[in-house]
Structure formats: C-alpha cells, structure tokens
TrEMBL record:
SUPFAM superfamilies: DNase I-like
GO CC list: extracellular matrix
InterPro entries noted in UniProt: Endo/exonu/phosph_ase_sf, Endo/exonuclease/phosphatase
Source organism (scientific name): Meloidogyne enterolobii
GO biological-process terms attached to the record: cell adhesion involved in heart morphogenesis; larval heart development
Protein's name according to its UniProt entry: Endonuclease/exonuclease/phosphatase domain-containing protein
Domain (Endonuclease/exonuclease/phosphatase) ranges: 81-194
PANTHER family: REVERSE TRANSCRIPTASE DOMAIN-CONTAINING PROTEIN, TRANSCRIPTASE, PUTATIVE-RELATED-RELATED
GO molecular function term, any single one: catalytic activity
A Pfam family recorded for this sequence: Exo_endo_phos_2
Amino acid sequence: MLLENRYKLIGVTESWLTDIVDDNLLLHGTPYNIIRTDRVKGRGGGTCLFISNKIPFIKIEIPNTTSEISCVDLLTPTEKIRIILTYRSSTKETIKDFKSILQSLYDISAVSYPLILLGDFNLPNIDWENYSTQTKNTKETLFLEYIQSLGLKQKIDKPTRGVNILDLLLTNEDELIKAITINPPISKSDHNTIEFEISFTNNYQDNTYKYPNFRKANYEIINAHFSTINWNLVFTQCSDINQLYFTFQSIIHNVICSYVPESKVKSNNLKKPEHIEKMTFI
C-alpha cells in the first residue's frame, strides 16, 4: 500500500508494533512520515499514521500515555485539520480505564477547527442512525455523551466487522468527509477497511500563514475561565510529572483555541531574526 503511493494518509489500528521495530523498517524508503503509538504493556494493540511527505503536519502529544491514540494537525494551505486515530481494546477494561481514554480524547478533540476522529472503538451496540443504545452499557452511553458534547457526526453506516459497526469515522464538519467506501480486509485482518476523501485544497503554493494574535485576545474572559478551574483537583488526578505537564498544556491549548483569535500574514513577510538571516546566506 505504501509502495503504491496512492493515499495521502493511512491509519492503522492494532498495529502490533513495539520499540524494537524501527520506523525506517516500516517506511522502507517510501514517501511517507510515520506517527505511531505502540502498546505500553502486553502484546498487540497500537495505532499508526502514515502521512504523505507532501503534507506538512504537527504531532500532537497525548495527555494519557497509556491510551493507544495517535494525533496530528495537518497543515493545509488554508487551515489546520486535526486527525485523531484511536484503538480501544475492550479486554480487561475497567470503567476507570474507559473514562481515562475519553478524557484523553476530549482533551485533544475540543478544538475550534476541523476535526476527524477515527479508529476501532469496539462499541457494537450503538444505533448510529439514532445515536442511541438500548443496552445498559455505561461505556456506550458515556461515548455518546462525549461525541454529542462536541457536536461530532458519525459517518459509517455499514458493518466493519461481521454485522457490527466497530470502526468509526467522526467529524465536527459534515462536508469535510466524502466518498466513503467500505472495502474488504487487508491481509489477515478481520476488519473491513474504510476509504474516504478529505475535502481541502491540496495546493501548498499558498504562502499564507496563520498565527494566534495574542494582542487581540480577550484576557478578561481568559482570566475568568482560569478562575473557574479547580487546579488542585486537576493536578491531584495526575499520576506523574509527564501527565501533569500534558494536562496543563492541554488546558492552555484549549484556552488559546477558544479565546485567542487567529491572524493571517504572508510567509514571505515574516521577518527572521538577524542570526537566522546570516545562517541563510552561509
């Protein structure tokens, strides 16, 4: 699939990769970059994104390091598109584990720009026509509450494994995704593959650059927002310094997205520092 160079973005769940498998071994000289999240404990699981080297992107860190989630912002000529790839194993999962995954997803999906959330969620009892569940499964109810709180729409309407819709494709912009097809499994997988198109201008000659304009930020609202946060409660739920940092980073990022407007500037008008200018001409 990579050698064909047919796709701009490929998402793989249950990648079964470990740290002994090098990125270069997977890419093998193909024109892609790779973002992956391997399972920390045990075999199997994991997620992996292959991104065409023609598409610039930013890797987004995941607050909960045990969640099998890979996340990037694709940098199109006109806007960012957040891509979140998730694998959720239901084996030996407690309700606490599930809530932890949902919190990670919420932290990285509460953005003000286009979002695509996809992956294998293993939630077979959700009626996606009515966004409801007839079971008393708390996890499925919590997941529905999560996607409805963010205004996400689920686009897959045909089974992806057996008679169940386990693999989901959600977005906050209905017109962003088109031409969805469900195809047969690849190799030894027992899940169908999903193919779709993302609607954006694939023209990277545009030299417009977006940046957060902090001069125009509403600091009165920002301060009011921060004052409503119980920081002691937020930080006492963090198990280590890494989780504390990512939690704080996520809060700041969401505030910037919500209350700091973006401005545009031509990239050729960006003034480089003098020492960088000197390096350019070496």
